[in-house]
Fold this protein.
Amino acid sequence: MELLRQIGKGGFGEVWLARNQTKGGLRAVKIVPLRGTGPVDPTGREIVSLSRLEQTARVRDPNLVTIHHVDRTAANLFYIMDTADDLSGGPVSEAGGKRAVG
């Protein structure tokens, strides 16, 4: 995946627009640091949320994005999902800066 630009940010992580380097399609990648800086464990909360989502995965809700892959590096939990709205509320596009990831 090639990270193109940040499209979202919250209390527990960032969401980046990414291009699949094999198939060329656009996806969103949420990156959550494994070590939080505050009293709340961001990774633990994300894992609980993903577990709840997995339990309801059989029901396809048009308001939920599909998560395609969950993994981690030494420093981050990340998951790859369908894109939704941009920060502006409009559809995502490739415009903006790029950042390569390993």
